[in-house]
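Z., the sequence and structure:
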Amino acid sequence: MQETRRHILDILRRRGQATVDDIVDELQKRRGSITAVTVRHHLMRLQEEDLITSPELRRRSSPGRPQYIYALTEKAKDLFPNNYQRLAMGLLMELQKQLPKDGVNVILEGVADTMAQDVYMPDAPLAERLDVVVEYLNQSGYEASWQREGDNFLLITSNCPYHGLAEGSGSLCQMDMRLVSTLLGVIPRRLNHVMQGDAHCSYLIPQVTNGR
């Protein structure tokens, strides 16, 4: 990322919100002369990348030009270091130590059901459901696609968003299977599996008997 834009994101993360004047003052301390026009140009580019929010008017207690404040979006916050993966790994390890395998799977299947409940469409044709499921999975980091396979369908995911957690544990892979099943309303058959050395995971989705 361009250095000045990274500095702007750093400023917004530390301050929570800032005006153009605030950002200019901070950048001048770091790198010398910079104008408000240049800062606004970088802010516009960051907005286009969905890394900062649309400007909101700040109420002034004294006369003067209106001031607009900027803040980070949730997407931008993901660019900074966090401890989510270590926390998730610790929770999964504790579940596996404290509960039998079936108990862990029941919990993760419940997580999958919760994740799927907002997009489950039991009455839509299967091809339409696959379109929605692929969009949902891509938004969740899976890099998914689907294609026809004879009279059936093939769902392909070429990235595992849990890659660091899934290694050495089949529980999250079972959760993925439950998620796909619940989203589609059809039980798939896994053909390829990244955890077994394949380049991607793929699922054969059978065409249901009612023609949908």
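The domain at 3-77 is CATH 1.10.10.10 (Arc Repressor Mutant, subunit A). The chain has two domains: 3-77, 84-205.

Let me know what you think.
H.
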